[in-house]
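Form 7-S
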Amino acid sequence: MTVGEMLAKISSRELTEWMIFYGYEPFGYEIGLYGHGIVASTLANIHRKKGAKATNPEDFIPKHRENDIEQTIGFVASLNQTVGGKDLR
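Output:
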């Protein structure tokens, strides 16, 4: 279902209720990443050297930057070239 289809089928009230619910009980991709961050930071903290700074789950969650489209395109192009692909742009 697209966002447009969803908005056509859901009321403003129901959408607001879901937004409030998400504020109390987050779900989806980002919360999954946070769970992995908890595991990774726990393991890193167990095995860190004495006196080293403790890590947090956020230290292991990838940071997505919305303005990095050119960097992403460049990265994909270099991967494509590495595996012998053709740039069809």
